[in-house]
Amino acid sequence: MRLPPMIASLRKHKLTAWLLALQVAVTCAVVCNAAFLIVQRMQRVDVPSGLTEAGLSGIMLAPLHPGSFPLDGYLADVNAVRGIAGVQSASLIDEFPLDGSESSATVCGSLKAAQALIASHSRRVPGCAQPALYAGSEHIVRTLGLKMVQGRALQMSDFVPGKPGYQTGPVATVIISQALADHLYPGKSAVGQPLYYEGGLASGKAVRVGGVAAHLQRGRLSNPADVDLGMLLPSEPDDPEVFLAIRSNALDQARVLKAATALLRKRHPDALADAYRGQTYAQIRARYFQRDTTMIGLLMAAAIGLLFVTALGIGGLANFWVGQRTRAIGIRRAVGARQRDILAYFHTENALIVGVGVVFGLLLAYALNIYLMHRYEIHRLPWIYLPIGALALWALGQLSVFHPALRASRVPPVVATRAV
Amino acid sequence: MLRYYLQLAWRSLRRHPVMSGLMVLAIGLGIGASMTMLTVLHVMDADPLPGRSAQLFRPYLNPLPRSYTNNGLGPDPSINLTWPDAMALLQAGKGAQQAAMAGTRALVMPGGNRRPFRAQGRMTTRGFFAMFGLHFVDGASWSSADGSSAAQVVVISQGLARRVFGSNQVVGRSLHLDSHDYRVVGVVRDWAPRPMFYVDDSAQRYKGADDYFVPLSTAVSLGLRVSGNQSGWGKDGIGPKSATMSWLQFWVQLDTPVQVAAYRRFLHNYAAQQKAAGRFERSPEKAARLYSLMGWLAARHIVPGDVSMQAGLAMAFLLVCLVNIVALLLAKFLRRAGEISVRRALGARRRDIFAQFCIESAAVGVLGGALGLLLAELGLWSVRQRPDDYAHLAQMDVGMLGLTIAAAVVASLCAGVLPAWRAARVAPALQLKAL
């Protein structure tokens, strides 16, 4: 196939061809960036919580009067809920991972690091980290379904009573996530190591790492460097608002949750009209990522819509051109062109136009990415998206021109002898 | 002539039903997507107090030490005012009206065997009602004597009055909020500007409303809880009256440009005084600013990044749809060179051909616009299903409805002009020879 005659023919449709290339360029730019954003948001949504999510539910307990802290009442509620058939385990916890709020603290893995931290007035000191802190009451490891990779789960004797005023009880042992262990004790086994936090940073009083969980996610994902840094204290919560966490069989979850809500409302007839609304952990987590899932859906719809409209444009235009050139095709067939020559002609012409569009599209994609980086704090588009996007659009062009090209190749040579 | 052209357009569209249908679909998708997102933006960007917002201003004072660094996650403390600053602005009284305020919540016990509920309220000063134009249906604002003596008085909304007392003539009755009793001095018509421009950054701007108002002095002396950011710094410690804790919002009404300029000077001088006294560390140019209401909302970035990105995406989509239509119409019109030539040879002028093809593209636009309207309604319905606080407001109003139809027709006319112009320039002689 020689290109010069084809280009000469395209020059007769200069404007149309350029418009098509422009459309391909914009589509390529938007789709490359959309694909990148979709992948990023999907990775965010897939982050592990560390919990055995199926079968876990939570009911928010809050004091009726602001400022009061009815912990004994909460503990009685937990005991009552444990009596419901189907409840395998129930505990209090101050926050769930990925529920949108957290309390965090600076912790250090050695006295030297703690002293360096105090001396530097900075939060980023090697050997120190900022994990999310969770305080959970008895059986919390079983209720959450944490997967321990080192050390032991907590024992009854580890748990300390809570006291109000946002001061965690004087625990002796803690559970930390693998990621936090890697931060604090690189290259060492974390179990039994000392850990300094809050008052211990200055006083040098350490707690011991009792066990390491594969994951224990934060309450919210704000700093990419701090993802999966979590620490569980075997202490009754000291927040006035806590979750009653319930573990049951996943199939039985809806019934257990309903029974627990009904029981709590019966125990507290003076509670607010909307109190004790139970949620499965899956719902809590889905709510945290709600904006991301909406965005993923919208970006996908936009990308698919753009590709659809572009395919429509390419196919439609080819269709018109085939109609317009019927006579020329007939003449070519009459002087010896085979069907596959005609087919190849249309495919090559399309490849040419889409190719030009894609080249501009890649530049545009890069420019769009720079604009998005400025405006929305988005990362740089990895180069791998560009060839994939280009190839995808090119393939889309070939696919959408296939049907009109096939129609063109079936034009009988005898058309040449007829008037159009 | 118009009828004839419409007939021609209809015939031409019917000759390629699939192609025409796809063109209408492309315009419909583009218009539907872009109008959905523009409506959402329009709702979020709306003027909360039409007719009044131009006179409302938000003073900004930055008392933070230069060495103060925020880790980037927490709120910026300089957004709110400290007690001493707010009181200084209030006592200077340079505006036509002014008020300091902060959010609060309380448990309402309706009595009888009804379950208690929580209400959102505001602790504020008495200028609030006149400045923002709240309408009293009974009673009036508390007196300045009530304000200075920290009397336990309250102004409540009609909705709360009906819910608690079953009537809105309740002035003089006693209302129990949390653990305190207040005497009702006024009842205002329910008031919920959208967005809630005067609230703290941590509050929801598209949901909820204030159901009760208590004097700021009363709230501070009773130690009511503030719902909103309270950020302390420095050694003066934290506490409602601390000079190093910000928690108050402040609004002022300025009626004329002269008053605005005078207020700017006043703020500048105040910041200069504070700097001279050693309290402010920044220059008055940086420490004192005056925002208009809409300017303040723009500076607060109340439209989330996700929403503006979605709007941009929708506009890119519309652009691609339009380019697509231009290319398709161009190819379609030029294919009819023969028909055009015959009409030209029979006496049609260029502008007749141009008009004919413009009408054909406008027909595509009207059909596409109608489809786009349906798709936009569908899109807005799906937005309303989302749990975001602004979602329930996503409704198309008359203005947006008109804009949608106009956008579709203008878009398709724009798309049609170029192809129609090209079609009108077809040289008849050349084409006639080929026939």
Describe the structure.
The complex is a heterodimer of chains A (420) and B (435). Chain A has 420 residues and is of the alpha+beta class. Chain A folds into two domains: 3-45 and 291-417, no CATH class; 63-274, no CATH class. Chain A has helices at 3-11, 14-45, 71-82, 111-120, 140-144, 178-184, 199-203, 253-267, 281-288, 290-324, 326-334, 339-376, 385-409; strands spanning 56-61, 87-93, 103-104, 107-108, 128-129, 132-135, 148-151, 173-177, 194-197, 207-213, 230-233, 242-248, 278-280. In chain A, helix 2 runs antiparallel to helix 10 (290-324) and helix 12 packs antiparallel against helix 13. Chain A is elongated. The model of chain A has no long low-confidence stretch (mean pLDDT 87). The interface between A and B is large, with 49 and 48 residues.
Indicate the structural class of chain A: alpha+beta
The quaternary structure here is heterodimer
The helix tally of chain B amounts to 15
- Tell me the number of strands of chain B: 12
Secondary structure layout plus pairing:
The complex is a heterodimer of chains A (420) and B (435).
Chain A: H1 3-11, H2 14-45, E1 56-61, H3 71-82, E2 87-93, E3 103-104, E4 107-108, H4 111-120, E5 128-129, E6 132-135, H5 140-144, E7 148-151, E8 173-177, H6 178-184, E9 194-197, H7 199-203, E10 207-213, E11 230-233, E12 242-248, H8 253-267, E13 278-280, H9 281-288, H10 290-324, H11 326-334, H12 339-376, H13 385-409
Parallel strand pairs in A: 6-11, 8-10
Antiparallel strand pairs in A: 1-12, 1-13, 2-12, 3-6, 4-5, 4-9, 7-10, 8-11, 9-10
Helix pairs in contact in A: 2-10, 2-12, 2-13, 10-13, 12-13
Chain B: H1 2-15, H2 17-44, E1 56-61, E2 81-82, H3 83-92, E3 97-108, E4 117-124, H4 127-132, E5 136-139, H5 144-148, E6 153-157, H6 158-165, E7 174-177, E8 180-188, E9 212-215, H7 216-222, E10 231-232, E11 245-253, H8 257-276, H9 284-287, E12 288-292, H10 293-299, H11 305-335, H12 337-345, H13 350-384, H14 398-424, H15 428-434
Parallel strand pairs in B: 4-9, 6-8
Antiparallel strand pairs in B: 1-11, 1-12, 2-11, 3-4, 3-11, 5-8, 6-9, 7-8, 10-11
Helix pairs in contact in B: 1-13, 2-11, 2-13, 2-14, 11-14, 12-15, 13-14
